[in-house]
Each structure stands twice: as structure tokens, then as C-alpha cells.
Amino acid sequence: MPLGNIMSEGEGKATLRINNITAHQSGGYECRASNNPNEEPVTMETVTVVLFKPQIDIDKFTRTTGSLIGKNISLHCIATGQPLPRITWYGPREGQIVSAIDYKTKKSVLTFVTKGSNDYGQYRCQAENEVGEDEHFINVTQLSKEVFIYKYLLVMV
């Protein structure tokens, strides 16, 4: 299957045009040229990086989670993109929240203690790079101890 179309641009010039390029086509490319089949060709190597907008892997996340007041909660966001996206969290009332990003796993985890009703609501994970952005919403609901215990006993029966 051809990689793309080679277009001649006159003597000593050619262009490789790749239509519908994907991230998997990033990498090294080599051009070889020769006027005489009995001589070593002249080669030129180039590295191509395909840029693409961030994409959050929503299959790995829940859209709703719950927490008791006074308990830790962790919200996860994994995003791919080239260049690697910046991940920003936004809370239900306070706007932007600072959170660390693990660039090896492309993952950001927002961990906090739910102290009151202001900590519950919709959180937004936004992944952004020079090409575009993506976002994912997680609704954090307040659990009551009675419901939590009831569910726990129901599972144990």
C-alpha cells in the first residue's frame, strides 16, 4: 500500500505528500536520489512529527462519583496529543484548580478532601495543546453515611 504521492517539482526537487496522515505515521523518512544506477544514491533523512489535538480517554473514567464529607476523593484524566497536552482542572465553583501532571503516563489526578457542599458538583478536565482541545466532565455527588452503610450491607448479604 503506497504511503503517499511523490510529486516532482523540477530538477532535483520532489515532495512526498501524505493524505489523511495519522499520528502513527510520525517518524523517520528517507529520500534517495540517483542519476546513475551504478552509483550510490544520495540520501537525505528527515524526522516527521504529526501534530494532533488532544483526546481524553473517556472509556477509562466514570462520569459520576461520590464521596462522604471529610473523605479523600481522586479524579483521573488521561489525555493523548502531539504536542503533549496541558491538563487543567476546573471545579464547580472556584474555577481553575492546580494539579500535577505525570507526563510519562499522560495522566493528571486531582485529589482533595470533600469539606462541604462547595466541593460537590461538576468538575471539568481540559486537555489543550497548540492544535486543539478536549474536555471531560465528572459529577461529584455527596454520599450520606446511611446510604453508604446500606449499600455496603447489601453487598455483604
Number of domains: 2
Mean of pLDDT: 81
Strands, total number: 13
Largest sheet descriptor:
5 strands, mixed
Please bin the fraction of helical residues.
Answer: under 10%
CA radius of gyration: 25 Å
Order of helices and strands: EEEEEEEEEEEEEH
Order of strands side by side in the largest beta sheet? 6-13-12-8-9
Globular, elongated, flat, extended or rod-shaped: what is the shape? rod-shaped
The level-1 CATH class of the largest domain: Mainly Beta
**Cα distance spanning the termini:** 59 Å
How would you summarize what this structure contains?
Keywords: Disulfide bond, Immunoglobulin domain, Repeat, Signal. With 157 residues, the protein is mainly β.
Output the keywords.
about 160 residues, mainly beta, Immunoglobulin-like, 5-stranded mixed β-sheet, 4-stranded antiparallel β-sheet, 1 helix, 13 strands, rod-shaped, immunoglobulin domain, signal
